[in-house]
Amino acid sequence: MPVSVPSRPVSIADLPGDAQVIIALRPDLLRLARRLSDSESEAQDLVQETLLKLWRRRAEVAGVEDLRAYARAALRNLYRQGLRRAPHLPLEEEDGPSAEPEVFASLALAHLHCAIARLPVDQARLIGLVMAGETSPAALAGQTGCGKNTVMSRLARARAQLRREMDLAPGAPVASLF
After folding, report:
1. What does the sequence similarity comment in the record state about its family (predicted)?
2. Tens digits of per-residue pLDDT, 96-149?
3. Domain with 76 in it
4. CB of 39 within 8 A of CB of 60?
5. How far apart are CA 148 and CA 150, in angstroms?
6. 66 and 143, same structural domain?
7. Same domain, yes or no, for 142 and 84?
8. Each residue of 123-142: b (16+ CB within 10 Å) or e?
9. Rg (CA), the chain
10. Does the residue 153 lie in any domain?
């Protein structure tokens, strides 16, 4: 399904309150998880599991005064539980499949949508055309009235900015968000 570029700038304030809180906690939790864990994938898993627990318990934690400290403590506890747990047991709950993919895919898309909205207008328009399925630099140049080299340069800058905002490694595919 193509994602449209918003007609007006979208900020994190435009997202539902619970999603704003979750998105805002992710970078801090990721830094902590990277310090604790042995690998990037383990750090990503810890953050994802922590945020998922917060999302599931959002009604219960709504009254927590310092949610950042609460989330950091939850992440540390998950890390310690993982150290005690047998290596063959997954971090997932044992009561069956969870809504994890939908929750985090939705949050990642919301974060990406906000990041695209913060791009300069010409870059956001090009990204929107690419997301809609147009991949030919010549066709993009024709639609925007820019030269092919200008289109390629703007796309490269836009992608680099989006990777930075989404905490992706340089050159990492967008699919790594999910």
Report:
1. Belongs to the sigma-70 factor family. ECF subfamily.
2. 455 555 666 677 777 778 888 888 999 888 888 888 888 888 888 998 898 999
3. 1-96
4. no
5. 5
6. no
7. no
8. bbbbbbbbbeeeeeeeebbe
9. 19
10. yes
